[in-house]
Write a structure and sequence with these properties.
Ribonucleotide Reductase Protein R1, domain 1; Fumarate_lyase_CS; Fumarate_lyase_fam; EC 4.3.2.2; amino-acid biosynthesis; Fumarase C, Chain A, domain 2; mainly alpha; about 425 residues; single chain; two-stranded antiparallel sheet; Fumarase C, Chain B, domain 1; two-stranded parallel sheet
Length: about 425
C-alpha cells in the first residue's frame, strides 16, 4: 500500500522486518518444541534463541539467488549461527512458517481495525443521541418521502457497523490458527506436539486439518468481512455526500482552515474525505473477489494464492484501518444545518404528509382505492402547479365531506412520524 493511505501502526505491522520477526518466532518456538521432545539438544536451542537474527537486506540478496523467500530467510539466519544452525527449519515446510506467521499478523491487524471500529461506533452512538429528535426529510429513490430524524440515520449506521464488529470477531477467531504439519499435512517429519506448542506460544489454535497450507476459506472469510465493512463505510460516506449537495446542504463533512476545494473555483467545499472513503472501499471489495479465487488450489496446494495474498491482505487491512480513522474524523466533526433540514421538509408544499391523509380517509370509511386516487390527484396538482397541498385538501369538497379542516391540519404534524424514535433507540440499546 502506498504511504499516503497508511497509518504508522499498520505500516510497521506489515513491514518486511516485522514479517521476518514472526517467521523467526515460529522457527525458534519449533526448536523449543523439538527440544522438549528430545529431538534437538537443549544447548543448541539456547544458542539459537540467543544468537539467531537476520538482516533484511541480506535476506533479499539471497532471495535473488535462491528465488525462494523462505530458503533465503533461513540461510540468512543460519549465517548468524554456528553448528546449531542445522536445527533451524528442522522438519518444517515453508508454509508451516509462512501460514502460521501470517495468521498471527492478520490477528494483530484485526485488533488494530477493531480499535478503530469501536471508536467509530462510539461516535455514532453519541451523534445518534445528539440528533435523535432533529427532523429531516426521508428520501426513497432520492425523492422526498416522509419525515425521519437525523439521529435515526446515525442509529442505523451504528446498527449496521455493529454487525460488522461481530463479523470481525468471527473472522478473527477463524483466522487465528496455525499449522506445523509438514509437506502435505500428515505430520510425517514433525510431531503434532510441535504444532500445539508453537500455536500456544503465538496465541493461535492448531488447525484441525491442513494440507501443506491452511485452507483459504479462512482468508476468504476475512476478506469478505472487510469488504462488507468497506461497503458500510461507503454507504455512510455516500449519504453524507448526497446530503452535502448544494441544493440539499443538510450536513457537510468538516472543512478545515487553510483547506482548498478546487484549483479553479475558490468557493468550492468538496466532500473529498467521503469521496476517498467511497473510492478506496472499492479496492477492498475488489480484493475480496481475489480471495475467493484463492480457495480452489491444486491437490495439497499450489502457489497461485501466495502472490495474490502479498497484496490483498496487507492492502485491505491497511485500508480498513485508515478509512475507519478517516470516517471517525468526518463523523465526529460533521457540520449539521438544522435550518436547511427544516426548510427541506417544506420544499414539496406538504406532499410528504400524503399517506397520513390517505389513512385518515380510509379510517373514515372510504375504500383504499378511492382514497388513494383522490389524494394522488390532488398531490399531482400540488406537485405540478406548485400549490400548497394542505390548502388544496381544504378546498376540495370530496375531502371535506369526510374530513373537517381541523382533521386535515392534524395530518400535517411532523412529530407524528417520529413518535416511535425512542422505541427504536431503546431496542438498539443506545
Amino acid at each position: 500500500m502506498i504511504e499516503r493511505y497508511q497509518r504508522p501502526e499498520m505500516k510497521q505491522l506489515w513491514s518486511l522486518e516485522n514479517k521476518f520477526k514472526k517467521w523467526l518466532q515460529v522457527e525458534i518456538y519449533s526448536c523449543e518444541a523439538f527440544s522438549e521432545l528430545g529431538e534437538v539438544p537443549g544447548e543448541a536451542v539456547d544458542k539459537i534463541k540467543s544468537n539467531a537474527y537476520f538482516d533484511t537486506q541480506r535476506v533479499l540478496e539471497l532471495e535473488k539467488e535462491t528465488r525462494h523467500d523462505v530458503i533465503a530467510f533461513t540461510r540468512a539466519v543460519s549465517e548468524t549461527l554456528g553448528p546449531e544452525k542445522k536445527y533451524v527449519h528442522y522438519g518444517l515446510t515453508s508454509s508451516d512458517v509462512v501460514d502460521t506467521a501470517l495468521s498471527s499478523l492478520i490477528r494483530d491487524a484485526l485488533t488494530l481495525i477493531e480499535q478503530e471500529l469501536d471508536r467509530v461506533l462510539q461516535i455514532l452512538r453519541d451523534q445518534a443521541r445528539k440528533y435523535k429528535d432533529y427532523p429531516i426529510i426521508g428520501r426513497t429513490h432520492g425523492v422526498h418521502a416522509e419525515p425521519t430524524t437525523l439521529g435515526l440515520k446515525f442509529a442505523l449506521f451504528y446498527d449496521e457497523l455493529s454487525r460488522s464488529r461481530k463479523r470481525l470477531d468471527r473472522a478473527k477467531e477463524n483466522i487465528s490458527v496455525g499449522k506445523i504439519s509438514g509437506a502435505v499435512g500428515t505430520y510425517a517429519n514433525v510431531s503434532p506436539y510441535v504444532e500445539e506448542y508453537v500455536c500456544h506460544k503465538l496465541g493461535l489454535q492448531p488447525a484441525l486439518t491442513s494440507t501443506q497450507i491452511l485452507q483459504r476459506d479462512r482468508h476468504a472469510e476475512l476478506m469478505s468481512t472487510l469488504a462488507i465493512l468497506a461497503g458500510t463505510m461507503d454507504k455512510i460516506a455516500t449519504e453524507i455526500r448526497n446530503l452535502q449537495k448544494t441544493e440539499v446542504r443538510e450536513v457537510e463533512e468538516p472543512f478545515y482552515k487553510g483547506q482548498k476545494g478546487s484549483s479553479a473555483m475558490p468557493h468550492k467545499r468538496n466532500p473529498v474525505n467521503c469521496e476517498k472513503i467511497s473510492g478506496l472501499s472499492r479496492v477492498i471489495r475488489s480484493n475480496a473477489q481475489a480471495a475467493f479465487e484463492n480457495q480452489p488450489l491444486w491437490h495439497e496446494r499450489d502457489i497461485s494464492h501466495s502472490s495474490v495474498e502479498r497484496l490483498i491482505i496487507p492492502d485491505s487491512t491497511t485500508l480498513s484501518h485508515y478509512l475507519l480513522n478517516l470516517l471517525a474524523k468526518v463523523l465526529e466533526n460533521l457540520h449539521v444545518y438544522p435550518d436547511n433540514m427544516e426548510q427541506n421538509l417544506k420544499t414539496t408544499n406538504g406532499l410528504i404528509y400524503s399517506q397520513r391523509v390517505l389513512l385518515n380517509l380510509i379510517d373514515k370509511g372510504l375504500s383504499r382505492e378511492k382514497a388513494y386516487d383522490l389524494i394522488q390527484e390532488l398531490a399531482m396538482k400540488s406537485w405540478e402547479g406548485d400549490e400548497n397541498f394542505q390548502e388544496l385538501l381544504k378546498q376540495d369538497s370530496r375531502v371535506l365531506e369526510i374530513l373537517d379542516k381541523e382533521e386535515i391540519d392534524n395530518c400535517f404534524d411532523p412529530t407524528y412520524y417520529t413518535r416511535n424514535v425512542d422505541y427504536i433507540f431503546e431496542r438498539l440499546g443506545i
